[in-house]
Amino acid sequence: MELRSNNRYYTPYTYKKVPEKLFYRTEPDFRQEKNLLSGKKYDIVAYGSIDAPYDSPQYNTPDTDPRLTDGVRAEKASMNDPAWARFSRGVARSILFDIGGIAAVKEFRIRCLWEKQTAVKLPNNVSFDVSENGVDFENVALLDGFRSDRDAEMVSAQAVLEPAVRARFVRVTFCCPVHIYIDQIEAIGKKDATGARPVVPDQQNEATYPNKYCTAEQLGGAKDVVLAYFCHEERPPLEVEHFLPYVGYLDKDGKATDTLFDGYLFLPFVAFLYEGYKKRPLDKAKWQYYMDQQFLPGKNLDALELAAAQVQKDLGLPELKVKVFFSILYPVVEQRSFGEIDGKERDLSVLEDRIAVLKWLIDEQERRFREKQYAHLDLAGYYWFTEEIDYDDAQLMEMIRFTTDYIRAKSMITTWIPYYLASGFNDWRRLGFDMACYQPNYAFRQDIPEQRLFDAAETAKLLGMCIELEVGGTARWNVGHTRNYYAAGAVTGYMKDAAHMYYQEGMPGAFYKAYHSDDPVLHSMYDDTYRFIKGTYPADGFDAGEDAGQA
Predict the structure, then answer these.
(1) How many domains does one find in the chain?
(2) Which domain holds residue 42?
(3) Could you tell me if 150 and 232 lie in one domain?
(4) Could you give the 3-state DSSP secondary structure of residue 534?
(5) d(CA 465, CA 214)
(6) Residue 299 · residue 238 · CB < 8 Å
(7) How confident is the model at residue 307 (pLDDT cuts 50, 70, 90)?
(8) Are the C-beta atoms of residues 432 and 450 closer than 8 Å to each other?
(9) Which end of the chain is least crowded, N or C, by CB within 10 Å?
(10) Contact 299, 371 (CB under 8 A)
């Protein structure tokens, strides 16, 4: 399946089938092993819009520039070296080469820049596809070992094909979460294709690119999950009254006239886990405090139970259950003395101890939940808290794999919510998560165009993710942005076809404030959210304010 591109920065590219197979025959270098891409021109496709200021050569090398195949290598690990081809934002890139005839390709080589100070990152993986006719491609290599423990480094990687494969066209694909710099891409082989195996075109890869949104069934049975932040030293715990406008759609007298959100993700405020952008090392006492806050008598989780009971009574329902998700805290490697788990002092620089701590957290939250014997709450799964994949943590993959496998064995799911273009966002399935919810990150700035919502929706659908609906505040422009999220969902289909998760500040949250507000504009956010959840928000319901764009 080909990704579609909304981008107009590069020359538009259309896949066209060549009419016949063209083999090399009499060239002097027919049997010489060489870089088959040397000096070749190439096309570039960007998936998703490249917004200003990134739509310029300063950030994105034009597709007319030859530096990927000119044989000139960077001399230093610095973004200022002129040999680097630059790629920034725009979700992902495919670079397409025409060798000129069918040849035998036996190896791919690529060299990238890592420069921590300037946010030039290594790709989390690079995919290599080949084709004989320009249309039917086979994926023959996936490089995912890009790592560096230095502040700046030129990192090379190669993939050897055994046996060699016949190819005329080469496609190289990678994601661009921020900046990716590459100086050379090479396909090593011979023009003599004798003995090379033919291309076996891939079938539509529905496992990797299902081209349909994640549904409530994949989200543990919940369709609309609100992020219920708690555990903040400067904020009181959540009460029943805070949850009532979420569990039920309330009239002006506070009585439920219908249900509203059917899922609740409990998670600590970011300040509990982070200091700025840096993860805070926390010991067992802090982890225990987090769990104790979650199960405070009459508060937080207990309050949600009581609110659900009240809504069930108001609506006269025979039963009302909502789904609950707990969080997985990150075992920060700098926490050398965590505390005792299973009779042993744990050191979070040691993989075995990090896994033991994760298992304890999962088991302890589940145990305490079961002891409560809630009548209206159903524990459906767990949330991996960090919003990006830190590939520099050499133990991370094994921690995630243990966590997801262990939770699946309990017949629950593990969810993840990466931010827009976060490191690893397109890798969520291979990492082991059962589902992922994509953040458009449109809500927090007025200068981000509405196109961002459509780019995020297209990417989420392609990758089988769902969409996080985000509310950045309660100012009038925030209300308008929320309407645009909902209208884009009606247009693209994620309103009805996808599950949803909702960020709306820390609880009690923007929806609570909107319900209680006498300002008709702010209160409309509550009513609009009800219409979106029920699938009736109109496709022409974009905000008409002066700061709103066109769909």
Answers:
(1) 2
(2) 34-190
(3) no
(4) coil
(5) 5
(6) yes
(7) very high
(8) no
(9) N
(10) no
